[in-house]
Design brief:
With about 160 residues, the protein is an alpha/beta fold. The protein has 2 domains: about 55 residues, 2,3-Dihydroxybiphenyl 1,2-Dioxygenase, domain 1; about 70 residues, Roll (2,3-Dihydroxybiphenyl 1,2-Dioxygenase, domain 1), CATH 3.10.180. It is built from 3 helices and 8 strands, in the order βαβββαβαβββ.
Length: about 160
């Protein structure tokens, strides 16, 4: 079954806003084990280590996707973080309030999932098409339960 192309009409940019200079930069992910999380993102997702530094009893790092210098993930590690939920079902994850996931655009969700499967990454639910936004989506979780979405624009 063919999915119809969806065009989302963006509102005009507001260049007169005092905040018109704002751009997305990074998302921070809290993890309990600095070295293990850094290695997971670098080995499983091919993220690159951009910078790392201590902050009090925490260790932090910026990581970026293999070929994207405009979006970074900041790892916040150390101390005694409270354990988060570890979802195996996407529907379960939609109930709590607060941060849910970050998204990475990919040319093919299915090809991405095949490669991640070969690297031992577990899918959270099944890939699905969401016709309302014209995308194919899939979710994974890092070993600490932080959700990551992959999105493919459908033709």
């Amino acid at each position: 079954m063919e999915t119809p192309q969806v065009t989302i009409q963006l509102p005009a940019r507001n260049t007169q806003s005092p905040f018109s200079h704002m751009r997305g930069a990074h998302v921070a992910v809290r993890v309990p084990d600095y070295e293990a999380s850094k290695q997971w993102y670098m080995e499983k997702l091919d993220f690159r280590l951009i910078h790392e530094w201590p902050f009090g009893d925490l260790q932090l790092a910026y990581l970026a996707p293999a070929n994207d210098d405009n979006f970074w993930v900041e790892l916040l590690a150390g101390g005694q973080p409270e354990a988060g939920a570890n979802y195996t079902d996407l529907d379960e994850s939609l109930h709590p309030a607060g941060y849910h996931h970050f998204c990475i655009d990919v040319p093919s969700v299915d090809d991405t999932l095949r490669e991640l499967s070969q690297r031992g990454v577990t899918l959270v639910g099944e890939a699905f098409n969401l016709s309302a936004i014209g995308k194919r989506l899939a979710f994974i979780a890092d070993p600490w339960g932080n959700l990551i979405e992959f999105a493919e624009q459908l033709a």
